[in-house]
Amino acid sequence: MKRIFTFCLLVLMSTMVYAQRGGNDQREKIESYRIAYMTKALDLSPQEAQKFWPVYNQMQSELKTLRDEKRNKVREMKNSGNEGAIADYELEQKQKELNVVKKHHAELKKAIPAEKVSRLYNVEGNFRKELKQRMQEHRQKNPRQNQMKREQMQRNNNGNSNVRPSTPRVKPAPPPPPKRSVPATKPNRNSSPKSR
């Protein structure tokens, strides 16, 4: 009972810390789902979870900072016409991300068994796939709501509240296939009665 209480308290605290960073409801839901999914998939005990999540969250925070820097820098490079250097810059950033993962990999092995650390990277990939699938299903269930959200985001990004709502694009019907002349069929010799 004490383990369950400790685990629930840890999950709640992790979620609260993330919520204080200014995330919206959607991010909070995703974060809560990620914690529950990974804890279950890695089969973390409350003691392991208590050691694992601070290290993992720190690693994710550093990776997010690097990705944000990369996104801003690439946008800046595109705007300045320096697109030739983007590939080199992205390669440097990937190396920095790898260095962050290597650094925290050693810390993670101290927090949880090495077998669980090795499963961690597969679990992360599986979580992203499942999350993507769930989001696609949600978008398919609520297409109008999602269209309105996209339009609102466009207005916010453009700073222009006079943006007309986009109309759904309808593909024109394909043209009918060209008419072909059908050659006359020859009568089948086997089907006609033989006269002698």
Strand percentage: under 5%
Helix content: over 70%
Count structural domains: 1
User: Tally of extended strands?
Assistant: 0
- Look at the helices and sheets and give the structural class: mainly alpha
Give the helix tally.
6
- Biggest sheet descriptor: none
Computed Rg: 28 Å
The low-pLDDT segments are: 160-166
Shape: extended
Series of H and E elements: HHHHHH
What's the end-to-end separation, in Å? 100 Å
Give the averaged pLDDT, no decimals: 78
Question: What would you say this structure looks like, in words?
Answer:
The protein has 196 residues and is mostly helical. It has one domain. The protein is 72% helix and 0% strand. The chain contains six helices and no strands. It has helices at 2-20, 25-42, 46-79, 86-111, 114-141, 143-158. Helix 1 (2-20) packs antiparallel against helix 2 (25-42), helix 2 (25-42) packs across helix 5 (114-141) and helix 3 (46-79) runs antiparallel to helix 4. The longest helix is centred in the N-terminal third of the chain and has 34 residues, at 46-79. It is extended. 6% of the residues are buried.
